[in-house]
Amino acid sequence: MMDPITTRQLAINRRMFFGRTALGVGTAALAGLLRQDTLGETSPSSRGVPGFPNFAPKARRVIYLLMSGAPPHVDTFDYKPHLADFAGKELPPSVQMGQRLSTMTANQKQQLILPSITGFRQYGKSGAWVSDYLPHIGSIVDDVCFIKSMTTTQVNHAPAVTYFMTGAEQPGRPSFGAWLSYGLGSANDNLPTFVVMTSRDRENTCGQLFYDHYWGSGFLPSKHQGVKLRSGGDPVLYLSNPPGISRLMRRDLLNDLDKLDEIKLSDCGDPEIATRIAQYEMAYRMQASVPELSDLSTEPREVLDMYGPDVLRPGSFAGNCLRARRLAERGVRYVQLMHAGWDHHSNLLTQFKIQCTDTDQPSAALVKDLKQRGLLDDTLVIWGGEFGRTVFGQGDRASGKFGRDHHPYCFTIWLAGGGIKPGLTYGASDDFCYNVAENPVHVHDFQATLLHLLGIDHEQLTFKFQGRRFRLTDVEGKVVDGILT
Amino acid sequence: MSRKRNKIIFGACAVIGLALAPLSVAASAEQQLLFNRDIRPILADTCFKCHGFDAKTRKANLRLDLPAEAFKLRKHGTPIVPGHADASEAYRRLTSTDPDVAMPPPDSHLKLTAPQIQIIRRWIDEGARYQVHWAFIAPVDPPPPQVSDSRWPRNPIDNFVLARLEQEGLQPSSEADRRTLIRRVSLDLTGLPPTPTEIDNFLDDHSATAYETVVDRLLASPRYGERMAVEWLDAARYADSNGYQADPTRTMWPWRDWIIDALNANMPFDEFTVDQIAGDLLPNATAKQRLASGFNRNHSYNGEGGRISEETRADNVLDRVDTTATTFLGLTAGCAKCHDHKYDPITQKEYYQLYAYFNQCSESGAIPSGSGNAPPVMDYLTPRQEQRLAALRTNERDAKAKLAAALPEIDAAQSQWENSVDPREYWTIANPAKLVSRNGATMQRLGDGSILVGGPSPETDVQEVTIATDLTGVSGLRLEALPDPTLPHGGPGRSEDTGNFVLTSLEAEAISRADPKQTRKIKFSFADATYSQQGFSVAAAISGNPTNGWAVDHAPDKHDISATFTFAQPVGFESGTELHLRFHYESKTNKRHTMGHFRLALTSGPVLTRSVAAALAVAPQKRTGEQKKQIAEFYRMRISNQFRSLSAAVVTATRAVDNYEKSLTKVMVMDDATPRQTHVLLRGQYDKPGDKVEPGVPAFLPALPPGAPHNRLALARWIVDPANPLTARVIVNRYWQSFFGSGIVKTAEDFGTQGEPPSHPELLDWLASRFVANGWNVKAIQRLIVTSSTYRQSSKISAEMLERDPANRLLARGPRFRLSSFVLRDQALAASGLLVEKLGGPPVKPYQPPGVWEEMSLGQIRYVQDHGDSLYRRSIYTFWRRTVAPTTMFDVSPRMVCMVRPLRTNTPLQALALLNDVTYIEAARVLSESLLEDASSMTGQKLDQIFVRLMARPCRTDEREILLAALDRLRSQFGSDKAAALKLVSAGEKPRSSNIDPPELAAWTALVNTVMNMDEAITKE
Fold this sequence. Notes:
The complex is a heterodimer.
Chain A: H1 4-22, H2 30-35, E1 61-68, H3 73-76, H4 93-96, E2 120-123, E3 128-131, H5 135-138, E4 144-151, H6 157-166, H7 176-184, E5 194-200, E6 227-228, H8 247-268, H9 271-294, H10 301-307, H11 317-329, E7 334-340, H12 348-372, E8 379-384, E9 388-396, E10 401-407, E11 411-417, E12 424-426, E13 428-429, E14 436-438, E15 441-442, H13 443-453, E16 462-465, E17 468-471
Parallel strand pairs in A: 1-7, 1-8, 4-12, 4-15, 5-6, 5-7
Antiparallel strand pairs in A: 2-3, 4-11, 8-11, 9-10, 13-14, 16-17
Helix pairs in contact in A: 1-9, 8-9, 11-12
Chain B: H1 3-20, H2 24-28, H3 35-46, H4 48-51, H5 67-70, H6 89-95, H7 114-125, H8 156-167, H9 178-190, H10 196-204, H11 210-220, H12 222-235, H13 253-264, H14 269-278, H15 287-292, H16 309-329, H17 348-357, E1 377-380, H18 383-420, E2 428-429, E3 432-437, E4 442-445, E5 451-454, E6 461-469, E7 474-481, E8 505-512, E9 519-521, E10 524-529, E11 562-571, E12 577-585, E13 597-603, H19 610-617, H20 625-639, H21 641-663, E14 665-668, E15 678-681, E16 689-693, H22 712-719, H23 727-740, H24 761-773, H25 778-786, H26 789-792, H27 799-804, E17 817-818, H28 821-832, H29 852-856, H30 908-916, H31 918-932, H32 939-951, H33 957-975, H34 978-985, H35 998-1012, E18 1019-1020
Antiparallel strand pairs in B: 1-14, 2-13, 3-6, 4-5, 5-13, 6-12, 7-11, 7-13, 8-9, 8-12, 10-11, 15-16, 17-18
Helix pairs in contact in B: 3-7, 9-11, 12-13, 14-22, 18-21, 19-20, 20-21, 23-24, 23-25, 28-31, 31-35, 33-35, 34-35
């Protein structure tokens, strides 16, 4: 619920507004009038917590490309040319140090090193090494900062994704986007401030699911939860009018409803009624803005081509990347784009390349497209999985059915845009891509850094629930200064 | 800061603060400050984290939560000097601007407001009197206070509320009108709107107890239990699936029905609690009591691949502790999982003492594949199923009894048979007349009547042997597998690796030599062998299953391998018989395992096994027990038709019982079947055990009675012991919350020091005391609340009261808030007449936009929508998938963990659902049909009926004008677009009335849909 003072203010505004409609201001003006108010650039219902942002933000919006299932850092970005010398040899115990493994390989007799299955090349002025399967990402390395020293504590998919998205491994905490919506409010009154899209590999090779707690609001008011744009049917549930009701009819009916509710408001005085009227109007605007957003037919051919051949396939990662750019343009603060299909335990040889092909061009196109529109300066793009994959192989080498197991101790992600040093590689793994060798970045550090880029001190964005002040970074988190401009 | 300005700010804070801490109002009055009400919330929020209960985070070894510590002289002075704020080091630091000295330290981001500092100062100056946290002291039954307006109170609740209002100089609102009242109380007690008849009856009842009559009717309605259960399911994190990856379906719905039944039956709350926490441990626990214990198995259950079972198990136990503590005690025990509680006096050790109670369950943490129900489970039976199972069990008993009764007769017959049977073997070597290998091997007859196979060694083969015999009454065939030096490894089979064979099946026919048209297929009843390889029993050769067969690798004596095949019926034509035998060697996995050398023989005598023949050869009195047993078994299973048929009846009856039991719904329940030593889990991690702990309750709460057992039953009884200061308060507070939208303690989940203090502490204590004194009578205490004058007030808000008390904490008006999405759907179904009032049963799957489950589960879980009545059941029966909640519901507990405070937001997505979901469009259409089918009513009357059904009142004049204009417009819109009209009125699966013109029906449907979305229609007021 809104705080009472704001609600009261809105009620007064509404009275003035309806006073005017009675004198003949047409309903067409309604949306515009409701969007404006005396308190700020957006309606009061969509403002954040007073005092936020705490300082000038470098990034105004975030697009998070979550590579679910966990891409192998060994085969993508964390190039170790000498690994080939150890092919098929046992991982030295001094490297593994008895750390916990997933039950899927903990019982495997030997942990034999599997060097990268692809070649690597250096790209750009920065000379970053990138897998031969990711040439498009190779072409943007000078805009990108690689963190090669990410580390997490979770070794199974759902807890690890939950950890990245919410700062805790158990479901139930607010997600990153919900915290942003809560703290900073909305920058657009026609669209939700936090939008989620999901896609998966076409072959549907892995069972990683996208639970709605990945974009939940936890104990924050539920209006802060992510709104999922679906790939089939209505992009937002119940967005379409029922068959037989046109947009024009809906407008008329909403005018009727507004008038009926206004009678009630003047009769009983509950400010919640004014909020309700405003929310029905927002619903009406979303009925236009969301389909417009999802409709890629207005994009010029050359832009569609940038994102690759898959861009018009419903539910494709490429299509979602282009939609993410459209959302960013429209002021949506946080786009969480989740793509499944990286969980290559036994099909690294076949699926990894396909997965790279599906994601490489769209990911790079998004960065380029934002850049050519001047949006990259204050838009933060993140590309990464929930953990890495083991340098040792899993499964039967002879049959070709092999891959890599989950690896939480060290992995690579990359960022680009608002406030991030371009062309940088930060941190490093050891010679076996196994442990962090320098500058470890824990999940909470990473989250603290993202909040910092958005102008938020991660220790100050808190919410009191069940007697405790919770925050995204729990009791940890240090801003990684080394990657900031 | 000028005095005047200070006052203004202070006043503003008091108003804003009202929503957060209503009692800060008291601090500004001339009343004496109370530690629990005025001081503790401030200290708990800003000081106790470092100077409180948790030793690990305590700074400077200073505690401000205990007076003895706070008053002690220290190096830098005495933190608190009672009566002298200026001499108190703590106060000096609160007001210091020196960042090295100031408290709380700037980097903590905690700050006291100026009024808060003022209050601390006053409290110290007034003597710094501490109190134990209010909720941890048992309530004393406070006398209802005197009030000036003695006419207003109907029961003591009103005295408490009015006394507070009078203290604030406020007056209660007038009573809500009767229509509002009956709608409010019907929605509150049954979750359904009143019917037009119920409204009329109430309006026509002029007796003084008309309202109470309504309340009693509602409390007695079966719909009451369905309504009240919803909140309990939120607390119990009930769902129909496990959550996590795969999210398999579970069947906990019988537990849900137990809750509904218990609420309808007004089971006393103490019994309700004990059954759910420890029903399985009650002496001679009934099936229902065991079922109730499913409360502690409603947690989600992680079966993700690669998951360590013990980790899941530990998570589940932690969840049980947290859920029990929040649901019954209003404690945030979970905060003590990793360290001592920062604010409440729960140590980490005490947390794991509670954990120990729930740690004895035989649940393993693993989950059986293909099921969402992890043991321990029980069978759930409806009364009809109970009858059926009892009948099946009687059948089984009867069959066993019949067999037992027949045994003497059978044994007598056995003695006769033993005397008559000749144990010697009479086998006649059969002379093969014709030999054929279907796949090209050679078959050669040798002088001893045996057959040697040679030539090419086919992968599989069928060896056909024709035997001519004059014997009649042929009862069996013997196959001797013989070694031969020409065979690999000396035979008897042709396998290159082992000299083995695999006889996968044997077929035989008897043909009359006189009349070859007379043939009989031979069926084999038994097969025995002198030796069978492990896993290759000779029975496999006559089982009809070609994937396995008889093989003889590693036989101890290659010269003694034979099998006998007993014919089900003896064969042999008077004029001589040709036996056609086909030996199949067709193993898919063991190629070239055909027979190499064998000999066949026939008998007309009894086909005895070697051991039985040996036993029979011994004189009866000299036989060993084992020999007697072998003979008896042989006789019963092979000779006695009587035994065979009686024992087959027993097997059939037993199988029927087993199958029926397997088909029954399984419900997860608790047991204490796996005693475990409990340890503190460091940082809450299952694999980091610390010190050993025993079951026990936190020390700040009353002790367990001496001699209480160390099990959940003792814990359950302790929770509902009248001496427990929390339980009754926590529960009545939630009832209050159900009706007023927010509890007397707003933080219904936290009665600890970080929770909000009660707005009416004496009222809460009085209600809690009444509740216990009346034997935990749930309906009685709820009746008291809803019949109070407080509850019956109008919910209209004056501008003045909106300023003064926006959140209605002082209760100067009635409750007004949006209905839950459960109730909204039920209301639409009820108002349209679609609602199917069937109590309980498996969950149903009503309308849902296509692809929602499929998208979430990557196509692994399909939503198969139900049809017919299942579309119109109450929302509580809608299938709840934990990973993706029903889409028609919003602001609901995700049912992941315990939740006791409702969510109530106001978002555009809710508007979209209520405007566009087919559930609501269909309800609007069906409601419209019922209006339009009544030709006698005028348009205005129809509008009134819509309003009465949804808002219990007729349409106002100004509303009517809007709606009549809308109706005209809609008629013209749909009149000119009949296709659109037809689309709209085709919403939903309920067949459409063909009597009504689609444009007219469409116009009304759109209109009703709009009225259904009116703020008043979706709000309880």
